[in-house]
User: Fold these one by one.
Assistant:
Number 1:
Amino acid sequence: MSEKKMMIVNEVSRLTGVSIRTLQYYDKIGLLPPADYTEVGYRLYDDETLQKLQIILLFRELEFPLKDIRRIIESPDFDREKALEQQIHILELKKEHIENLIDLARGVKKSGVKDMTDFTAFDTAKIDAYIAKAREYWGDTAAFKEFEEKNADRTSEENAGINTELMKIFAQFGGMKDMDPASPKVQKQVKKLQDYITDKFYNCTNTILSSLGHAYSAEGEMNRNIDKAGGKGTGEFVDKAIQIYCSK
């Protein structure tokens, strides 16, 4: 079994353009703890922490405060694929904006200003509107606000423990995959999941639970994590069980 490849903090700083001081601060506030430390105390980062850093930097492009980014990526229904989809779109909008500015500058250099009233190349309305829409998607719900309140004083170790317990619930679902999702035992497990989310994250109504169920079975990081905990097909099985539970 090969050893996990690690990068020292200096290398990560050079690779990403993020200063060492910033990486130290991310560790201090529990946003991005390193995977390990060297014997002399240098921070080490593996592929998983580098992927998390990518997500953090992408959310910074959406102008989210660090405390909101931590809340989003630690949420049980964080959808990495959706985040990347939004990030690609905002970067495409910014690329279009920069290209318009370049075209304008080249035109002015070549022929001078033709229309003194045309400032459309400087217009960022589309970018601003999309950023507002994305921020609303991730942050402007009662459930997220409740999660933020509950999460405010938790340490990264406490959050890790909470997520570990959540994955144990999915692992238990994995042991039930051969059962009828409508059976009393499976439906009791759904209630256990709902109660755990309500206790640790936010009030998990049947409507929210139903949406989470669809996310559990959809292709993406959440589904992969659930299937890793309970075996292939667990996310899809949990979704079926949840939809039966919520339809009662």
Note: The longest helix spans residues 80-111.
Number 2:
Amino acid sequence: MNTLEVFKKKLNNRNYSARTIKTYVFYLSRFLKSQNKSPSHITFAEITKYLLDQSYTSTSQQNQIIGSLKLYAKYMLNRSNIHIDKIERPKRAKKLPLVLDGVETEKKIKAIKNLKHRCILTISYSGALRISELLNLKLKDIDRNRMVIKINLGKGSKDRIIPINLNTLRLLEQYYRKYKPVDYLFNGQKTIKYTSSSCNKLVKKHLHPDASIHTLRHTCATHLHEKGVDIATISRFLGHSSVKTTMVYLRISTKVIQRLPIPM
């Protein structure tokens, strides 16, 4: 078993998501190809130099490369001369995420003629789902009696349940009768699961050219706050580990700012 296969296995055993594993293995592969020595002789200085020499396309990419090398040093090298905690991650720019108009979003989704596409965007928006949570939904996760959907092993390997209303449940029943999915709720044309790229293309096509599935998550959370739902409840609904993560919606929501006594 080569280095990349061992690394992949170690991440899998520690319950990293398939998407994260794929990303980290890719960046580790690039790093190892750049080195002209055995992995056992790689030093902290060489890892640092490699990071400084990179041309990053974004803060996100920089974090992914750093993350892959940190875990490689931690799980594979296990060497005291590589001080992984000294590799600093860049601070993310605090940009406000795109939020769509709620009424217009619902109107556009309901107007979609393709039943599968309408179901995908309905559940994504109403459940404020992450893309991985959407793609991993299974038929058994829909509890018709309790009117909830179980999200299995969301981010951080945490399960949670989210409510489903009667209209969405009826839409899903209609979808099931037509498409008869097996195991996973949304099957691709040639794959057992729908793909993330296909889902995001649906959002761009039907809702907004700059939007994605994650935009629908931001939009749902923001509108819940504007309708009076408290941050703690929204945090549980989204599956956040900390309420601090949910606080971004205070910056986006118009609930508080519209109460300001602006002159003129």
Note: The longest strand covers residues 148-151.
Number 3:
Amino acid sequence: MTKKILLINGPNLQLLGVREPEIYGVETLPGIVADLRKEAALLGFELEDFQSNSEGALVDRIGEALSSGVDGIIINPAAYTHTSVALRDALAAVALPAVEVHLSNIAGREDFRRRSYTAEKCIGVISGFGALSYKLALRALAEHLASAGK
């Protein structure tokens, strides 16, 4: 049985490639997802992806993770990183291994972006490497799941 990783992307990430390319790069979200799907298959995982601008939809999808057979989560909460106790609580509730990912280095940006509510419910955070951050997150989560025997 193939293990499943859920990729969750938050608000405004559907605008990648056109939104502030000097910060977020020129790669589009569909391009990042396609590359990640290939990488996941090479690692023996199925990748399911979900993007929403709605906090409630993101919380709902995290809540459905257990019943849909998800083994781990990669999440880019985007702006909700810095504001959403609800996403933090959803990650805590499902208690699945999760990796938080960001294209930019949030620690080197505006003060309000330096606090992540979701990071403490993740096994790790990868940020600042552009689209490569996603691949690094996938590799880290795959290794974690393999070593945990999941």
Note: The longest strand covers residues 3-9.
